[in-house]
Input
Amino acid sequence: MATIIDVAKLANVSKSTVSRVLTDTGSVSELARKRVLLAIKQLDYHNNKFAQGYRRNCSNTIGVVLVDMTSAYFCSLLEGIQYVFSEQGMSVLVASGYGVKEKEIQAIKSLMQRRCDGLITYLENSVDATDLSLTERFTTPLITIGPSSAFQAQASVEIDNHAGGYLAAKSLLEAGHKKIVHLAGLSCYQDAGKRLAGFEQAMQEYANNDYYVVRGKYEDQFGYSATKLLLKNGLAFTAICAGDDDIAAGVYLALREANINIPKQVSVIGYDDNFHAKHMFPALSTIKQPSREMGEAAAKLLLDQLDNKQSIDKCLKITPSFINRDSIFPVNG
Output
């Protein structure tokens, strides 16, 4: 099936020019318009909703609010979202709430003022219409990603963090580890709470009470400082279950500075499978969150809402998977 990129290439114009022709907005030369319309006909692009004039009264813009725009996880998530909408000739506006409720509210308000056709949010805090001081019913199509909700959205995409935490702990337990440290995310992170609950369920099932939990930010600095402190205090452990791959990177550095071999002396598992995980030495075993696929799924759900012009009651829960590399070593007893 032809895409807007195919039309742009054949017509020798930009994607934005194709969008302006399809939506009958903006300034386009008559020659460029004719080339675009000819390309649409040659590629049989008339089935696309824009070619049918579907969105003539809309902004062709989607708003996205994320917790963070610098981490590899959220960059990959955004890449999936942008890919889907770029195929439809739509623009994406991105804002960050930085995990602070007031800033998340501000970001949503800003995107609403820009008349976005729909919103995709990944928030740390639950936000509702009351928080936004709306005087009218919220009608903008909305998809949420992650554990926190916005306006009690009916459609959402969520990773099963409980299952991921369970899987991370189980991989260490099955390798014979008992003295395990879990460097978890902060208690205000809903996903961290679910991962910790899954971790503790595995510990209970294996009747292992010899574990220790420390909580902090999803940052390498937390992994580094927490590991240094554990070593300084003489806590005995054979494995560290990191709340995410950034934390694991800090753990690696602290252990390396202490001349502790990974994985023969201390095994490490991460969470996310960020792009740097396979390039760490030794390559990091981790729990894979298919972040790009999650972004694509959310974008497609939102497109379905825009197509049907009504909300969709659907929750996609994606199960993470264990990526076994080189950072877990079996122990005896």
Summary: The longest strand covers residues 61-66. Residues 4-47 form one domain.
